[in-house]
Amino acid sequence: MTGASGFIGAKVVEILLEYGFCNLRCLVRPSSQLGRLKKATAPFDGKGNIEFLAGDLLSPEDCAKAAEGVSIIYHLAAGFDKSFAGAFMNSALTTRNLMEAFLQHGTPKRFVNVSSFAVYSNLSLERGAVLNETCALEDAPQKRWDAYGFGKLKQEELVKEYGERCHLRYVIVRPGAVFGPGKTQLNGRVGIDTFGFFMHLGGHNQLPLTFVDNCAEAIVLAGLTPGIDGEIFNIVDDELPTSRQFLRAYKKKAGVRSISLPYPITYLLCYLWERYASWSRNQLPPAFNRRRCSAEWKGNRYSNRKLRERLSWKPRVGMDDAMEAFLAQF
Amino acid sequence: MLRIAIVGCGKVADQHAAAIHRVADCQIVALCDRELLMAKQLGERCHVSQCFSDVQEMLRSATPQVVHITTPPQSHFQLARQCLEFGSHVYIEKPFTVTAAEAEGLIQSAEERGLKVTAGHNYQFTLEMMEMRRLVREGFLGGPPAHVESYWSYDLGDISYVAPMVSNSGHWVRQLPGQLFHNLISHGLAKVAEFLDDEVTEVVATAHQSSQLRQLRAKEVLDELRVLIRDKNGTTAFFCFSTQIKGVNQLRIFGPSGSITADIITGTAVRTSSQAYKSYLTYFIPPLKNAKEYLRNAAFSVSNFVRRRLYQDFGMKELTERFYRSIEGEISVPIPYREIILTARLMDRIFDQVYPEGEQAQFGQGVSGVDSQNSLSLFVNK
Questions:
Q1: CB atoms within 10 A of CB B108
Q2: What is the ipTM of this complex?
Q3: Chain A contacts of B9, Cβ < 8 Å?
Q4: In chain B, domain spans
Q5: Which tens digit of pLDDT belongs to each residue from A118-147?
């Protein structure tokens, strides 16, 4: 596992252990805080073979050590660098190193690549239409000013290339907005926190939420379920709330002030921002633009049908309980 | 049309590519990175099809007239030398080289070949720095500068840069003689070098580790630096690099009849006159004059915003453009070579003092108040 000390990663470890897979190697950055991970593995101390390996995915040597003798890799480590080069380096290049090491030093059965909803483009999708695994991917991440999405797109491209060229057996999972205890910030699809207040941009849109436990179990199943090589799965929960419902519940607990902007106004402002950025030759970077507006605030519906049908997954935590657990931290 | 290549396609290369795109009559023709995928990702975003993982191959195939080197500093000297030997002009990211000897060697090599080089001291060309330079040229100081102060801060809050470096002693930053300082102080130090004579008689440096860095478990890395400098003419300079002072990146220059503060964060160049006022007027007139000065700066910023000149990395575009114009023979090199060499020499002397060979562990344990004995041992005149 990579990214094992992270918000989702520690939960994946916990569920793998719960499933009885105690032969785990967790690659963590030397600077990582291991609190979550150690808490997840504590009940299994001395019971299995759980190894913490400090290393850097940019180092082929560290990747070789991580991949030595392993048969499944859960690749959760992600780069959140704001620059495109940094995002590419920390998402795509690291993935390439890991896959190379897996093929050379592992006994590859499956490579589970954890991607993101950020790879989708909603630009040509109607409002209210269902976004699923067959939808178009973003073809101009630079215009969307989304370095993270660029890194994830390139990561997926590399995984698919290795699948074709090197016969690497892979599965790609794309979690929606993962939430749960331990993560307090609101997802950008609800709105943006700026100038001292919260600007609610999500309106009545359905949010592609997935509770961290549910998401982690889907990821675990993606590594264990036979017959799904080369498949892609979106991860969202059932009974998805709207942005307005989610924010209302959040405000009751967190006590933030917000103003709402309807989608047409948001779209117009994003369009004007984009035009100004272009006219001024990026004096203001195009941080708000039509592509981002469509991807985050247009309002689509989401399906976990493929996940349910092919992985026999169902949310282990219902939305009401998930919301309660999330809000309990405020 | 100048043919440009970039060697090293990491984060800084993105800034260079953006700056180059703003300059007329030039085109990026090739990209090179030891990791070909990195070159390709930048090529895809900048519409450059010629991507290489070998510099020699790139030079032969793409024949660039100018090469921007944006790799880690340890490779600057070798790469620049290869480019110069091929006949390309070279723009080298800061720090120019690892040592002053390398800097001198490169400049000599360029001059022998009739080629140009420049260092990535782009903060020398921000709007406020150019305004400050204009004021100095017009005599606002009333004579040569008597004292210069440069403050350069770096916020460790963004641990994406610091964390991988502090946790890995093999990281390229950790391999530099001045470690973290080596990669971060060039901009601030180049500002004082501009106003000092080449013959520096005294350099006094002291450094310690902040408590914040200690929490990141960085044993040997120092991140607080103070330096006193004096040149043969008696001009003095104070340089402060800090990770704990937030948001202060400024140069203050003092002359007989006034001082100027160029602030990079706020984009202001504020004049302060040494004029004396009678009695209580001292308390009324200077503050009002200061208010007027800030108002003038605000108007200047608004004007620049309207004119679309207030974009990030204006300094890099300006430096790049001036460097290209110097190549075309229109102007002299934007950064005098003596300034590049002096910056490198000052860095050498500072690192000799704060990281004396074999004493890294001692200073690594030092806290924000280095004890007086250690402090004294650091105040070594050269």
A1: 11
A2: 0.93
A3: 85
A4: 2-119, 124-315+342-378
A5: 999 989 999 999 999 999 999 999 999 999
